[in-house]
C-alpha cells in the first residue's frame, strides 16, 4: 500500500508543487487549504502522515496540531516560513515529529517524510488482517474465510484490504477512490460498482461472514 499523506497548506503554488512531486514519489496525497478542512481529513482517518503549514487562513496550524495530539499520535511534519527558534520549539513541544522551514527542497521533504514514517511504523506489523471469520493475507494478497478462498480482482482485493485495515470505521467513497485507484481517477461510481461486486462475493462465504455496510451520506464500513 502506498503511504497516504494529508497536505494542509494554503499557498496554492507551493501546495501544487508539493503534491505533484510527492505523487511522483509514490505517495497518495489529499490536499486541503485551511484548518477546518484539515480537521475533517484528519478526523476521517486513513492517512499515514500529515504535512501541516502553520499559517492557515482560518486559524493557527499549532492549534490544529494541539487538537490532533489530544486524540492521536498520527505523525506530523510542520512546514512554515517561521524559522525562529521559539517557533520551532513550540511546534516540536506541542507534538510535531519534524519541522521544516521554507524554502526547502522537495527531495528533503520526501526524505523527512520517509524517515518519520519509518520511526512511527510498528516494528512487527501483522501480515494478516482478521475481521471476524475473514482472513486477509497482505503478503499473498488473498482473502479467505473458514478455508474458502475469495476469488478477487486486484482492485477488489485492494478495496477489501483498505476496509479491513479499519473494521467498523466508516470510510468515504472519495477516500476509497483516492486510496485504491489514485489521485487521477475521478469516477465515484467505480467505488459503488466494486462494493457491489465485493458484497456478492462476501455473501457467498460461510456464515457468519463480514459484510460491507453503506452509511448513507458518509460512506462504507466493513462489519465483522
TrEMBL record:
DNA-binding region: 126-224
Alphabetical list of SMART domains matching this protein: REC (SM00448), Trans_reg_C (SM00862)
Residue stretches making up the Response regulatory domain: 4-117
4-aspartylphosphate: residues carrying this PTM: 53
Organism domain of life: Bacteria
Domain OmpR/PhoB-type as annotated: residue spans: 126-224
One of the record's GO molecular function terms: transcription cis-regulatory region binding
Gene Ontology cellular component list: cytosol; protein-DNA complex
A Pfam short name: Response_reg
Key words, A-Z: DNA-binding, Phosphoprotein, Transcription, Transcription regulation
GO biological process: one example: regulation of DNA-templated transcription
InterPro entries assigned to the protein according to its UniProt record, in alphabetical order: CheY-like_superfamily (IPR011006), OmpR/PhoB-type_DNA-bd (IPR001867), Sig_transdc_resp-reg_receiver (IPR001789), WalR-like (IPR039420), WH-like_DNA-bd_sf (IPR036388)
SUPFAM superfamilies associated with the record: CheY-like (SSF52172)
Signal peptide span: none
Name assigned to this protein: Response regulator transcription factor
